[in-house]
TrEMBL record, chain A:
Protein name as catalogued: Nitrate reductase subunit gamma
GO molecular function list: electron transfer activity; heme binding; nitrate reductase activity
A cellular component term, taken from the record's GO annotations: plasma membrane
Pfam families registered for this protein in UniProt: Nitrate_red_gam (PF02665)
Coiled coil: none
Family matches, as InterPro entries: DsrM, Heme-iron_electron_transfer, NarG-like_domain, NarG-like_sf
Organism this protein belongs to: Dissulfurispira thermophila
Domain of life: Bacteria
Transmembrane stretches, start-end: 33-51, 124-144, 164-188, 208-225, 245-268
One GO BP: anaerobic electron transport chain
Locations listed in the record: Cell membrane
Main location: membrane
Membrane topology: Multi-pass membrane protein
From TrEMBL, chain B:
Domain spans labelled 4Fe-4S ferredoxin-type: 84-113, 153-182
Gene3D superfamilies according to UniProt: Alpha-helical ferredoxin
Organism: hot springs metagenome
Pfam families assigned to the protein according to its UniProt record, in alphabetical order: CCG (PF02754), Fer4_8 (PF13183)
Protein name, per record: Menaquinol oxidoreductase
MF terms in GO: 4 iron, 4 sulfur cluster binding; metal ion binding; oxidoreductase activity
Lineage, opening ranks: unclassified sequences, metagenomes, ecological metagenomes
Classification via PROSITE patterns: 4FE4S_FER_1, 4FE4S_FER_2
Alphabetical keyword list: 4Fe-4S, Electron transport, Iron, Iron-sulfur, Metal-binding, Transport
NCBIfam families per UniProt: DsrK
Entry-linked InterPro entries: 4Fe4S_Fe-S-bd, 4Fe4S_Fe_S_CS, Cys_rich_dom, Helical_ferredxn
Region (Disordered): 520-541
Length: 330, 541
């Protein structure tokens, strides 16, 4: 159920676009209204989420220290795992965001011969995560070509790089394949590892199916069911210049692709996908670990009821005197 | 409650298979030996905790206050607004499972609800239901569920099966820290009066008497005098520490666990001997007689109330700075919270070692340093005369205490000290030490006796790594810098790795410390004979 429901949800989305465009000729709905709405939801949603998080203060310095602290001068500090300056923090965050540092550390704990635990390195998830995110990024960047005239020069470089295998015409871009492979791996991992299957929610499968759908339609469109790229560019340029047009001759497959992408955009801010923004706000990673050196201020700090020394001595004065412990009042 | 009799072999039959039913449809089964007894009403009254009532974990009816649901929900709301960590961690988990097999409680029980991600989901599902649009509309399909009494019981049960050790947060790609979530979950149970006896007792003691064990001023003094007698027997030196002395240069604060019971007292004897040898101008306080903070396991506010006395006492006595003993959660609290809660300590001076002249710039605001930093600095400057061969009967490994490791990042200092006072030091396997260290399994107030199965299961991964070095290198001593470790690891060693003893580092240091005017020592601090010194070099034909 947990897998089937999200799967069918994506199928329904495909059918919606198919019927909507192929049957009912709602090109302008699927080609203009929906994309605009999705982008709007995406932008407003993300801003809303980030503002909401940012509104909650970080009262304490709760950094997770994964390396030696700054201490005596002859002890080497691990600046990236236990940062004490903003620069160190930037370094730590860069490692985290660009290279998934924490995930790279992953190990697998297993009970062998039901008596001893062994912990082996386990980098598959890291590898799939990196492959997925970077290929997604490059694929996304490649699409800039559809929104810019003339095509920015860095894109040529990127495309040469991406398509260096030079297979077929049009050129085969590796990232598309890697993206599909990585996302499929992530899906299979979720299904095959019992623990991961157990913790998975529908909300974990849905974006996977959605992205599989997007990648598949994209690849289909590029290599198999050819669409009129000139017409597509006309449409996308119209969208970015706020002068929407619906050119003729664009195949249904394009609208399906676009609709799935729009869904992803609109779904983004309300789902776990917001980890993209949240990772930057995670207090265990983005703080310095020098809380003994610099005082952190808690904005909602308030006075609390305490048991004072005077009250303490009041209770124990006689016993303290007997034990020859100094007291304030005789 | 029947006595806990399960043998290690029974506990090792861990079933890592996931249940057939979805976790939301798998009801919680509150099992004997896996939980601690409820708090006594009088302890909760002492500190004014709300909704005190009679209840038993295994009872159907927990006698919750009528508006318990509102209390919990408004409690969640308040905390979302106060802690970004909590808010962000409720939203950004992708359930990748990287944290799943990192938790010692999961590894030791095989219970999927002990995977950090699922432990978090227990509360997240409630959060989604009441605080997110998706959860409100789509309910279960969006991973949301109604807050019912069963859900509350489940939260209670599993949030007291987490020692807030933060190991999971090391591996999470977003640094999601289950300890932060557990702390919030425990605050919520606290609002309903669902507190543990083993936590509430020490809290009440600490509030009224200054320390968790409830030692009264004269008892503190007489306990220490017992140690002084033993020190005199062993070294021939009579030490005369002071108590509550105004005008001392340094206030020394350590967990009260060091003042009571074996092996904590040996660590305390170590401090006494070191400070005497240095001629340190310091004093103990009977009022600020606790560095540990069990309040931290109930609520942020309570923790702050308990921690208050350290600065207050430093001010009253007019000391220059504060020295702290070997303790785990104490140092997490001191390092990451104390200055924020109870500072600024502008009436104190930046800690400066009177022996070496080292100024501890890294503590220039808190004005408090760790006794291991202090000792490492002494050794580095050659200020101590050490004879490590006196520890030659020990083959030592070091357990990084979770909080000192992941809440402070103190890895090198303790190792430096050990290597200077012991000749035989062996590290446990790499993935079980330093920031990846395993919890003792009994932290955060779970060090009771009625939950022995939980403790032994949770302590298994740590014990297993110790067993490795015992089997490979003949290790027989597990050194650490945490009072809870000293109090709990011995039980876990006896169970899983018999023949391994537990000690604080200052015990080992004091064994090796050659004191001015000492008589020839024949025993170590435990009264066991010192190893024979081999005068001839082996192999000299
Ligand atoms: S590692 Fe982090 S993101 Fe992954 S399941 Fe655990 S808490 Fe969630
Ligand atoms: S903080 Fe420690 S005990 Fe708690 S879930 Fe994480 S690893 Fe387990």
């Amino acid at each position: 159920m947990k897998i089937l429901f999200p799967f069918f949800a994506v199928i329904v989305l495909v059918l919606l676009a198919m019927i909507g465009v192929g049957g009912a000729n709602l090109q302008s709905l699927f080609g203009v209204v929906v994309p605009y709405a999705a982008v709007l939801i995406f932008i407003i949603g993300i801003i809303y989420r980030v503002i909401k998080w940012a509104k909650s203060p970080v009262p304490f310095s709760i950094v997770t220290t994964c390396g030696q602290q700054k201490t005596l001068p002859w002890i080497k500090q691990n600046k990236l795992e236990n940062p004490s300056t903003t620069l160190h923090v930037i370094g730590r965050m860069a490692l985290e965001v660009l290279f998934f540092r924490s995930l790279f550390r992953n190990i697998k704990g297993e009970l062998k011969d039901s008596s001893r635990f062994i912990y082996g390195s386990d980098k598959w998830l890291w590898l799939a995560g990196i492959a997925f995110h970077y290929s997604f990024l490059i694929v996304l960047l490649r699409h800039i070509r559809l929104f810019a005239e003339p095509t920015p020069s860095f894109l040529h470089l990127l495309e040469t790089f991406d398509g260096f295998l030079q297979i077929g015409i049009p050129r085969l871009f590796m990232t598309g394949i890697i993206l599909l492979a990585a996302v499929t791996f992530l899906f299979l991992r979720r299904v095959y590892i019992p623990q991961v299957r157990y913790i998975s929610l529908q909300a974990d499968y849905f974006p996977l199916f959605l992205i599989i759908g997007i990648a598949t339609t994209g690849i289909l469109m590029r290599y198999f069911l050819k669409t009129d790229v000139v017409a597509v560019k006309e449409l996308t340029m119209g969208l970015v210049s706020f002068n929407p047009v619906i050119p003729k001759g664009i195949g249904v497959i394009f609208y399906i692709h676009l609709f799935l992408v729009s869904t992803l955009f609109a779904y983004f801010p309300f789902s776990k996908l917001v980890h993209m923004g949240g990772v930057f706000l995670s207090p265990t990673r983005n703080l310095t670990g020098n809380s003994r050196e610099y005082r952190r201020i808690n904005p909602w700090n308030y006075p609390v009821k305490v048991h004072t020394y005077e009250e303490y001595e009041e209770e124990f004065r006689e016993k303290m005197k007997m034990a020859e412990i100094p007291v304030e009042k005789e | 409650m029947a006595k806990f009799t399960a043998k290690p072999a029974d506990l090792l039959k861990i079933n890592f298979k996931t249940p057939k039913t979805d976790w939301m449809d798998t009801p919680v089964e509150i099992r004997e030996h896996m939980y601690c007894h409820p708090a006594k009403a009088k302890d909760l009254e002492t500190v004014g905790f709300p909704n005190i009532h009679e209840w038993k974990p295994t009872d159907e009816n927990w006698n919750l206050p009528e508006n318990w649901k509102e209390i919990v929900l408004s409690g969640i709301k308040e905390r979302l607004q106060k802690y970004r960590s909590f808010h962000v961690f409720m939203d950004i988990c992708v359930r990748c499972g990287a944290c799943a097999d990192k938790c010692h409680f999961y590894l030791g029980t095989g219970d999927p609800k002990n995977m950090p991600v699922l432990r978090a989901e227990l509360l997240r599902s409630v959060y989604r239901k009441y605080f997110t649009t998706g959860g409100k509309i789509f309910g279960k399909t969006a991973g949301a569920r109604e807050l019912t009494e069963d859900v509350l019981k489940e939260l209670w049960y599993y949030y007291y099966q987490c020692t807030e050790c933060r190991r999971c947060s090391v591996f999470c790609p977003y640094g999601i820290d289950q300890a932060e979530i557990t702390m919030m979950g425990r605050e919520l149970t606290n609002l309903l009066g669902l507190q543990l006896g083993w936590i509430a007792g020490p809290v009440a003691n600490c509030y009224m008497k200054g320390n968790h064990l409830g030692l009264e001023p004269h008892t503190i003094k007489s306990n220490i005098e017992f140690m002084l007698d033993d020190i005199e027997t062993i070294t021939g030196i009579r030490i005369n520490p002071t108590f509550n002395r105004k005008g001392a240069e340094i206030l020394f604060v350590t967990p009260s666990g060091d003042l009571f019971g074996v092996p904590g007292v040996y660590t305390a004897m170590g401090y006494l001997m070191l400070f005497h040898e240095l001629g340190l101008d310091y004093t103990w306080s009977t009022y600020a007689s606790e560095g540990g903070n069990f309040g931290f396991f109930t609520s942020n506010e309570m923790a702050k109330r308990l921690n208050y006395k350290i600065y207050a006492e430093a001010k009253r006595l007019g000391v220059k700075w504060i020295l702290g003993g070997e303790c785990g959660h104490m140092w997490r609290v001191l390092h990451q919270y104390m200055d924020t809660w109870n500072g600024p300590a502008d009436f104190l001076e930046v800690p400066k070692s009177p022996i070496t002249g080292t100024v501890f710039e890294n503590a220039k605001s808190l004005k408090m340093i760790h006794v291991i930093e202090f000792a490492a600095d002494l050794i580095k400057h050659g200020k101590l005369k050490l004879d490590p061969s006196r520890n030659d009967h020990l083959r030592v490994t070091f357990h990084d205490s979770c909080n000192v490791a992941r809440g402070m990042g103190m890895f090198e200092e303790p190792r430096y000290v050990i290597k200077n006072v012991c000749n035989h030091f062996y590290e446990m396997p790499e993935n079980t030490i330093r920031e990846k260290t395993f919890c003792c399994g009994s932290g955060t107030g779970l060090n009771a006796s009625e939950n022995m199965e939980l403790r032994m299961r949770g302590g298994l991964p740590r014990a297993n790594a110790v067993k490795y070095v015992r089997d490979h290198y003949g290790v027989n001593m597990l050194a650490n810098i945490c009072a809870i470790d000293r109090a709990t690891l011995q039980a876990s060693m006896d169970y899983w790795v018999p023949g391994t003893a537990v000690a604080g580092i200052h015990e080992l240091l004091a064994n090796a410390l050659v004191m001015k005017g000492e008589k020839e020592r024949t025993t170590d601090l435990r009264g066991e004979p010192l190893p024979q010194k081999s005068t001839e070099k082996e192999g000299a034909e």
